[in-house]
Amino acid sequence: MAEAAASHRSRVPWALAVIVGLCSGLAGYVIHAARVNRIPKQVVTVQRLTDMAGTEESPAISPDGKKVAFVALSGGKRQIWVGSAITKDDADHYGPRWAPDSKSLIYFASGAIWEIPAVGGETRKLVDALGPGDLSSDGKLAFFRRDDGAVELLVDARTVAKLTAGTYSNLRWSRDDRKIAYLEDTRIMVVNASGGNPVQVAQGLTVQGFAWAPDNSGLIASTHGELWFIPRKEGSSPSQLTFGELSYESPDISADGRVVVSRSGLGADGDMVMFSGLKW
Questions:
Q1: CA separation for the pair 53, 4 (Å, rounded)
Q2: Which of the residues 41, 48, 73, 201 has an alpha carbon 20 to 30 A from that of 88?
Q3: Is the dihedral of CA 121, 126, 127, 132 positive or negative?
């Protein structure tokens, strides 16, 4: 696959304050569907967003579609970046997610979820938690906490589901705010935001990360380094979207369908790229 931008190594992102809507200098990429009768051969464009020493992780597109937050090393610690590092304290930071107005972000560090302005500045502790959370379109916070050896999924102060001991991550609100999905180990679970029993989807797939499609028709998931579409329609089978030697992880999707992923397989360092025109 051909790169869209020159491979000039730098320790800072050359896509400072990434304007996701600009797609100049893109190269054409051909991506085939796993099932020819489901998704036809397609041509999409790919834009390289970062060129840093090390790996960029956990990309998150702002709701207004203008910026991408991510995690990368700075001073030996994982920091939250939006063009440049906006966190600077001596701790590892994980899982940036945007507030609905695109003016601030939440992240997980030191056993709690914190909020910080998108331009950097004073942080505010929101709640103790087991890991990163996610915000609904109207600002409700979904997060995990431990309860007497088990785990609870909460929305603000309300318990949505009581879970067994395990590893939980990748909390994501559906686009209509009616459901919450998350990873239990490598399995995608979905529960009603109003409460109930979680249900596993996409059985048989080992998932690293996922995001809801803009129209709520399904999930875009990373499994074994490839992107798959997992439809919500009962009886429909998952379809593979990418093939190749490169590995794509932690997808996030804008409202108009652009997909940002963390990419590896280019050597010691990874980067972050954006797919435009990907169909599922």
A1: 19
A2: 48
A3: negative
Look up residue 267 and give its amino acid: G
11: left (phi over 0), alpha (psi -120 to 50) or beta: alpha
| Whether 184 contacts 217, CB under 8 Å | no
Measured between alpha carbons, how far is 85 from 138 in angstroms, rounded to an integer?
27
Residue 102, judged by CB atoms within 10 A of its CB (0-12, 13-18, 19+), counts as middle
Q: How confident is the model at residue 91 (pLDDT cuts 50, 70, 90)?
A: very high
DSSP, collapsed to helix, strand or coil, labels residue 181 as strand
Condensed to tens digits (0 to 9), the pLDDT of residues 255-264 reads 999 999 999 9
Q: How do the domains of the chain map onto residue ranges? A: 25-54+202-280
